[in-house]
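We emphasize that the prediction below concerns an isolated chain of 143 residues; any contacts that depend on oligomerization or on bound cofactors are therefore not represented. The input was used exactly as deposited, without trimming of termini.
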Amino acid sequence: MAQDIRKSIIELKKTTQSTSALVTKINSIVGKVNYDESAAAVLLSDTVSTNQLKTVFENLEKSSQDIKSVSQNLEKYLKEISAGEGTINHLIQDKAMAGQLDSTMINVKEAAEKLNENMEALRQNFLFRRYFKKQEREKKKKP
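Result of the prediction step, given as a token string:
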């Protein structure tokens, strides 16, 4: 038992010496830091920088929560699509609806082209020509 106590005391001395050396190293490092110019000094002493840093971390946390919420919503929508539910699924999966949408878009395009033709014909019509020329003159006058 006495031998164990001696070993413990020797180990305790080694630990104390190591701790003392570590504290010396830390003091040396801390002593080398120029507190007037270092970032650590600014963060530790400047309340404005501290508050700004705090705001940055709060914003990061809020953004993280928002991203988590968005990803949960996306996961929910993807599950609905995979399960064959929801409007998006009908748009993606229903070939008849896709054909109707294509047909509708073609009709809209054709109607727009015909409307452009009719407007051009109206511009050339002698009853409306004066009106359109007047509009063009006013348009040129404006900067």
